[in-house]
Automatic annotation (TrEMBL):
This is SWIM-type domain-containing protein. It comes from the Archaea. InterPro entries: Transposase_11, Znf_SWIM. It holds the Pfam family DDE_Tnp_1. The keyword tRNA-binding does not apply. One of its GO terms (biological process) is DNA transposition. Residues 69-104 form the SWIM-type domain. GO terms for molecular function: DNA binding; transposase activity; zinc ion binding. Keywords: Metal-binding, Zinc, Zinc-finger.
Length: 461
């Protein structure tokens, strides 16, 4: 079931059917996706029914049973809601979806259309469908397109020529596609083998691969730079569309626990280990232009330069958004130096003293004296949160890999899937078919970039 209707984008007119059944059961991942879809649809219905009103303290959203909930936005642009759904799961609840729909001013279809769509998202208990061919068009086309596009871009990988004796090697293309297939399935180890077998049967990979082989590749640190290059590559069709970017980081948790000292009480406990994904996102489409994965101790500021530089390699940046964690003169200076404008909120103890960075003072004055104008730009930062939400709700936020290099690559596989899905969504928006894309590859900027650049890989066994 594809989210062709992410917040922040145009609303699709057609009904998207939900019929994601394997042997009569929805799997956990697809169930989670459809719950999330229903929250969104319910939110859009609330917005359409004009149940949202703005007050001094925030937005009051009247729920379907008459209950009222308060949705607030803090100074960093984070939404929260007083409802139970939000407090328990911390997921974007239907009330926040409603507020976002009202704020974005998107034109919603009629109430009856929305209700029909909501109904279609109800979990079905229907007769068994034995194989993938029973997926609905919407479902199978996203999955098919994802792997076809992936296969196409992976064919740009230049395989290493030298072979070392004694060790069987598989093409890196196959390894990458199988890794993405495993991550996309949200299954671990042996349970993903069936999905990888189907990828072989469908011709996405050239040979059958054991799950252990896929795991071997998943932990290779060399795969990190290849995956990062692929993610950046898939963002390049958007170079003429995206000029405003939003940066943030968010955690992905692992199954491992590590010792953790609670300073307050002086006792040592165990805490779940997690990794941080730092991303820079184009605010119109939610495409991820740059990415870095670090451990949870890394600060956001430290990763700014790497991400911003990577973004500038492909994009012309007019405005760079980030929350208060990025509020340093160095960062303001770097953004200004590229010709872009920094939209980063100041903290209470910031002063307007430029200390040589004049854009700091300029933005400080705008922030203090014309908050409305500042926020007019800054609200676009929400899109980076939407992007993390899309990523986590669709591809999962708990990592299956046990080694750190495996975890890094696993997050990158999720991000690659996200970017390809954004690309597919835009294909639909532009009303082009995938066949058009491959037929017209000479005239597609996307393919030009691929052809000009290629992906050169330094790779060793
Ligand atoms: Zn709520």
């Amino acid at each position: 079931m594809e989210h062709f209707m992410e917040i922040g984008s145009q609303y699709p007119q057609e009904l998207i059917e939900n019929n994601e059944m394997i042997n009569g059961h929805q799997n956990a991942a697809s169930r989670k996706r459809s719950i999330d879809q229903r929250r969104k649809m319910k939110g859009l219905l609330l917005a359409k029914k004009k149940n949202v009103s703005e007050t001094k303290s925030g937005w009051i959203v009247k729920g379907s049973h008459g209950s009222k909930h308060l949705v607030t936005i803090n100074s960093e642009g984070h939404y929260s809601c007083s409802c139970e759904d939000f407090r328990n799961s911390n997921y974007v609840c239907k009330h926040i979806h409603a507020v976002r729909a009202v704020e974005s001013g998107i034109i919603l279809p009629s109430i009856s259309t929305l209700e029909k769509q909501l109904n279609s998202l109800r979990p079905h208990i229907k007769e068994c469908t034995q194989n993938w061919s029973a997926y609905t068009n919407a479902q199978s086309s996203e999955e098919r397109l994802l792997f076809e596009i992936l296969k196409n871009i992976c064919s740009m990988i230049i395989e290493p020529t030298e072979k070392k004796r004694g060790r069987p090697t598989i093409p890196i293309q196959d390894a990458i596609i199988a890794m993405v297939c495993k991550v996309y399935s949200m299954k671990s180890g042996r349970r993903a083998e069936h999905d990888i077998e189907i990828a072989y049967e469908k011709g996405y990979i050239s040979r059958k691969l054991r799950h252990t082989t896929v795991s071997d590749y998943m932990i290779k640190p060399e795969m990190t730079s290849i995956l990062t290059a692929l993610i950046e590559l898939v963002s390049t069709p958007f170079i003429n569309i995206e000029t405003t970017f939003a940066m943030d980081s968010s955690g992905f948790s692992t199954k491992k626990h590590e010792p953790w000292k609670q300073f307050k009480y002086g006792i040592e406990t165990k805490k779940r280990k997690w990794l941080k994904a730092h991303i820079n996102v184009g605010v119109k489409t939610n495409i991820i232009a740059a990415v870095a994965i670090t451990d949870s101790n890394e600060t956001d500021q430290n990763k700014f330069e790497q991400l911003f530089t990577a973004t500038l390699e492909n994009f012309h940046v007019d405005e760079q958004m980030a929350d208060g964690a990025y509020c340093t003169r160095d960062i303001f200076e770097a953004i200004d130096g590229s010709g872009a404008k920094p939209f980063i909120p100041f903290s209470d103890h910031s002063t307007g003293n430029p200390k040589g960075v004049w854009v700091w003072t300029e933005m400080y004055e705008l922030f203090q004296q014309n908050k409305i104008e500042f926020l007019k730009h800054y609200h676009k930062r929400n899109n980076v949160e939407t992007t993390f939400h899309m990523l986590k709700s669709k591809f999962g936020e708990t990592l299956k890999s046990t080694s750190e290099s495996g975890q890094v690559n696993e997050i990158l596989c999720k991000i690659l899937c996200h970017n390809i899905c954004v690309f597919i969504h835009e294909l639909y928006e532009l009303n082009v078919s995938i066949d058009d894309l491959f037929e017209k590859k000479q005239s597609m900027p996307f393919m030009h970039v691929v052809n000009n650049k290629g992906i050169h890989v330094s790779y060793s066994h």
